[in-house]
Amino acid sequence: MAVKPPTRGRAATGAVAGFVLRLARESIPRTQVMMAESVGVDLATLQGWESGRRPLANMKAGALLTLRRRLGQLGADSAVVGLLDPAIDADQVIGAALEPPGDIGRHPLASWVHTRDTAHMLAWALTGVAPPALGVRAPLSRRGPVATAPLLTAADRTLFFEHLRGTAEAARRPGGGTLLHRQALYLASYDRGPEAASWTAHALHTHRGVLARQGWSEHWAEARSTAAALARLGDPQPLLDFIERSLSGDDIAEAANLNYWAYWMGGVRLPQSDDQFMRDRQLTGWDPTTLLRGLTYGMHQAPGYVDLYVHTLWALLTAHPWLPQASPVLALDLAERAELLLEGGGTSERSRRELNTVHYVLRDRT
User: Are 14 and 55 in contact (CB under 8 A)?
Assistant: First the structure.
């Protein structure tokens, strides 16, 4: 993902990317002194990077690229190094949200469509829950208290969500920006305090009208985001309605869903500044096998969205029936997971039908 410079005049924070850098260093392993020498900087600079006092986002693009490559040469965990870009993205969103809403047109949430890795990085800072991509990796133990996550302080979390809700409301006004509004509203659903949850649920429910639209419309991405956020808050019905009304059976909407999933899971190389890429009915620009892998192994990490995962798997295999033969091991893994879902229940009637189809296709072609 391209590195985006922070907006001037905005409070900068680099704690998330700094924490990822620390995990990368410890995966080699190197002490801070050894690492500073290895990358050609003084100890204070490295400590500033890792603490977030010197945000990695403020580095020149060439210097940041050199640092990433040097980490690889030193043997750092590639999965951790690969999270530096989304961590920088998360830091920019946090830096913007810690300031009162200003020029919303320059807000990071208005500038590009975020990916799953960026969302997971933000959740890490807001909830302390480690991104699934990090697995069981944890900071090395040392004397004294050791932070186990780049978690914002309680005061900063309160400020973050307060300003984020203000941004969402400002973006709802004419000319405010649909992308900013839907992304800010989705992130607001991470605040599970009683009053905050009530505000978010109310704000989301005011958008239920977009969920009633049949098939593709200019509000399709907004409807999808609204349904997903309500599912996060424990209301699954809008997501089921979205699949039934705004997705199933509409070629443009089905293509948009596959394109968005591919982007969300990091399968589209370039960052997108708006939602227009979703309308590509030719499904170009991403690898179907990569998307199949992401859906297969990500489904258990998002229980609230299982029905959407199932429908997307069904649509992907319908669009690319050759996938099971191209990736037989992956297909067998998916078949086993489909069996467990069918045996365990907990999915809609539509999902059960689609799961049965998926299971049959996988067994028949592997």
Answer: yes
